[in-house]
Amino acid sequence: MMSAVILQGLPAQVNTQCRVLVLGSMPGAVSLHEARYYAHPRNRFWPVMAALCGFDATSDYTQRMQHLQRAGAGVWDVIGQCQRSGSLDAAIVRGSEVANPLPALIAGLPALQVIACNGGAAHAAFQRWVQPALPVVAAALPVLALPSTSPANAAWSLPRLLEAWGQLRPWLGEPEPPTTRHCGG
């Protein structure tokens, strides 16, 4: 059995126009090694978000992240540091978790309308460490517990994931440009 090592998560990928904050638990080994969110080739996060936001899931990482942010979505994790061997949430050493400063991030996102937890572990960690520390206004935001896109969640097919994650559609998409009214003619 591998011994647990101390892992440091990835930085938040959000901008001030973020309407949907997608929170994972802690990046897997491949993502940490490549310093890219959802880098495991069998993780379905990018195909799901590409389908919901209308971009090519096979484009390079920088382009995918730009498309995601233009659609109003941002990505981070609830846990910023922990001890774990391997990639599974179940392998996180209980008591080693250090939460990311999500209350401060959320307070700085004026357009935020919904928080989406990618999997049960992310949702449980959010409820444990983040929810109690949120200001009243932020605590009123809807928090969706969505099925994990991880390859470990093989019971959920891509079509089933798309259906469940489709709850995010009302908040995703490029914002409409302001309309201009012309007077007279």
Automatic annotation (TrEMBL):
<protein>
    <submittedName>
        <fullName>DNA glycosylase</fullName>
    </submittedName>
</protein>
<feature type="domain" description="Uracil-DNA glycosylase-like">
    <location>
        <begin position="11"/>
        <end position="169"/>
    </location>
</feature>
<dbReference type="InterPro" id="IPR036895">
    <property type="entry name" value="Uracil-DNA_glycosylase-like_sf"/>
</dbReference>
<dbReference type="Pfam" id="PF03167">
    <property type="entry name" value="UDG"/>
</dbReference>
<dbReference type="InterPro" id="IPR026353">
    <property type="entry name" value="Hypoxan-DNA_Glyclase"/>
</dbReference>
<dbReference type="InterPro" id="IPR005122">
    <property type="entry name" value="Uracil-DNA_glycosylase-like"/>
</dbReference>
